[in-house]
Amino acid sequence: MIIESSPTNLDPRVGIDAWSERIDALMFDDLLDRDEHLNVTPALAERWEVPDPLTYIFHIRRGVKFHDGRALASRDVKWTFDSMLQGKIRTTRAAAYRYVDRVEAPDDYTIVFRLKEPFSTLLWNLSDGAMGIVPYGTLAEMTNHPVGSGPFRFVSAEQDKEVIVERNEDYWGDKPHVPRVRFVVVPDTTTRALELRKGSADIASNALTSDMVLTLEKEPNLQVERAPGTVFSYLAFNLHDPILRDVRVRQALAYAIDRRPMIQYLWRGFARPADSILPPQSWAYDGDVQKYEFDPERARQILDAAGYPSINGVRFHLAMKTSTEETTRLMVAVLQQQLRGVGIVLDIRAFESATFMADVVSGAYQMYSLRWIGGNEDPDIFEYVFHSDKFPPHGANRSFYVNPRIDALIKEGRTETDPSRRKAVYAEIQTILANDLPYINLWFLDNVIVHTKRVHNITLNPSGNYDFLKTAEISTQ
To answer: Is 311 exposed, middle or buried (0-12, 13-18, 19+ CB in 10 A)?
Structure first.
């Protein structure tokens, strides 16, 4: 399997890049799993109870072994979280468990999380790649010699070259069909396509341009699998800006943008329009919100009413900062043309990624576009991105959006344990955001896997992780 970059750290408590998380999820078990609607389901924990909003009790599966033969018990779970919360392991992941007061192990197969305040997102932060369980007492050695209890076990890793895992013959669940997977690091996109074409690699997941996928689809020895994904592209505004703080201007911009040609020509149809930061697969998604179909005439009327008349065809200038990434630059060029149609001149300023992100975080911009990868799969994203306490560096409210009703709803959703009530809270949040427009929702990218025809039984996951390797098979012909 081809990957674009080496994992930075295979200790599941530390690695936060996509390749670390996805490979870790094959080697380490989490307490919980996630289904196709991003609901939590049993995994290491066969069942759990929430007797009150501050107490979560998990009952661990018996007979589970780590790859080195040690039995997995509740003390391993406790150690995994204590090592982060007590600073034995330095990691940014500890922030996800900031409301955990303590973790208790009253017996070998029971684990209890005591919370400082209600935090209904805890279950999500214990599931499918969020935090794999490590053996009791392990510290930094897990980085170079990861030992988990998952369906694959670590064999070797060489930076910027490869990671090799093999089937765990003692796995407690369904064993993988493939005896060994070699993740080969190939940074160059064209080279990745050539490796697949000549058959020296079997699989690439979300690692090729749309044009390359369409070309490789014609190869007789290759097959393309695609399914709706959760990677979310958006356009963000600086609400401190004197023009963009007017919600009418933001709404006019939404009507002036036509996403259809960008999805068709830039992404070759491998994307779907977005109406929320939450993906449609999410249990909390609500698509019954204000929508902004392409309507340039309505955009012009709104701008006239907002006090921005067209003078010699120009109402005002806006500057959009962007990275030098190819698809982003092409998208911004299309935006520039579409906004010109309603009298807005879009000035494009491209920067290398570090400078671009520094300006975004510091608020030195009017508009920018980025993507959320994975973080938007749980409604806890609303707090991180839209709560008034989460301006950088405390969170990702880079638009400086303030709405007291949103703040109140976010707290209600975080502390509510009843799923139906939480869903209603998040529906109201999505309705408000669709009217206020701190973001313009653009699209969700599809998950696309290109593989040789000797590989089959591949099932795509909404998150775009590597779970399909658990069921993949290789033809013996």
So the answer is: exposed
Count of other CB atoms within 10 angstroms of residue 259? 22
Q: Which of 200, 205, 163, 196 is nearest to 182 (CA)?
A: 163
Q: What is the pLDDT of residues 70-93, one digit of tens each?
A: 999 999 999 999 999 999 998 888
Treating both helix axes as pointing N-terminal to C-terminal, what angle do 419-436 and 404-415 enclose, rounded to 10 degrees?
160
3-state helix, strand, coil in the chain (%, to 5): 30, 25, 45
Q: Average pLDDT, whole number, for the chain?
A: 94
Alpha-carbon separation of residue 178 from 148, 157, 168, 228 (angstroms):
18, 19, 10, 25
- Could you give the count of Cα atoms lying within 13 Å of 359 in the half-sphere of its Cβ? 21
Listing DSSP states for 191-240 in one string gives HHHHHHHTTS--EEES-S-HHHHHHHTTSTTEEEEEEEEEEEEEEEE-TT
Question: How many of the other CB atoms lie within 10 Å of CB of 104?
Answer: 13
DSSP 175: P
Higher-pLDDT residue of 329, 253: 253
CA gap 106, 115 in Å, rounded:
16
Three-state secondary-structure class, residue 270: coil
